[in-house]
Amino acid sequence: MKIGILGTGFGRYHASIYKKLSDVESIIIFGRDKDKLNKIKTELQIEVTDNINDILTNPDIDLVDICLPSNLHRKYVIEALKNGKNVYCETPVSLSLADAIAMKECEKEYGKKVFVDLFIKHEPPYEFLFNLAQKKEYGNLKALYLKRNTPPFWGDLGIGNITTNLMIHEFDFITWLLGSPDNISVSGLPTKEGESIVIANLNYKDTLVQVQSSSMMAKYYPFTVGYEAVFENAVIEFSEKCYEAGSDISCKLYTNSTVMDIELNDKNCYEESIKHVLDCCNKNIPTKLGIDDAIKSLEIAINAKNLLLEKV
């Protein structure tokens, strides 16, 4: 396959993944910063361009990978679809439901696919929990508590952005696992400019779900994700704390008779997501990274955002 990438931020990382894959024939990346482009060209030995149409209108490009700011996703996803390309789009797919629905409609109109980087579905601890819940080895899942906390290193994650730009990943996982909730409730506090802390409750008939997220942690607090999943006959507890020197990862299974450490594989979720997209394109197999999946989680994120803004 021939890959065109829009954006040299996270797009550079995507390019490094494509570079390792045997079924990728060529890669070209678009950006506006010529110094950055030249550095990427030297380091990765791939083609670069500062003309976006070298990718969008090139008939040889099979897949356009969009790593631009979210407010530009709609425009360039639709342009790529119009030009006969399949699309892989970074998350969040957009910042409004109208934009996401427009992409879905164009996907149907032009007969090409839009995939979204819902990478959490390929993260080993979340895959493990998903599979365990499907098997019901320890009974039904009765409660799920998830968290994602960070120092303020990622731009504006204030009350108006945290649900779409940070909590969206937990919403991606929850809708994959349980579908859309019956309703949601949310509480949150803005702190300093661009920082906030939010708790969202997603209500299902048979499972209690809560997501807690903060962008106001102290500078030396590690970026932290985790969950506690309460089954009828067991509890799974996962935690990952990311430091400059590496990560502390723990995943434990608690039952009435024992406690054990769960050995997780070390797969790269971004690489696995890209491999999945290429397989879907080459083999026409069903995807778990589709635009419909992204819309489900985006709807929760936007509803939560609106509820928060009503209270501010």
UniProtKB/TrEMBL annotation:
Pfam families in the cross-refs: GFO_IDH_MocA (PF01408)
Residue stretches making up the Gfo/Idh/MocA-like oxidoreductase N-terminal domain: 1-117
GO molecular function, one term: nucleotide binding
InterPro entries tied to this protein: Gfo/Idh/MocA-like_OxRdtase_N (IPR000683), Gfo/Idh/MocA_Oxidoreductases (IPR051450), NAD(P)-bd_dom_sf (IPR036291)
Highest taxon of the lineage: Bacteria
Name of the protein: Gfo/Idh/MocA family oxidoreductase
Native source organism of the sequence: Oceanirhabdus seepicola
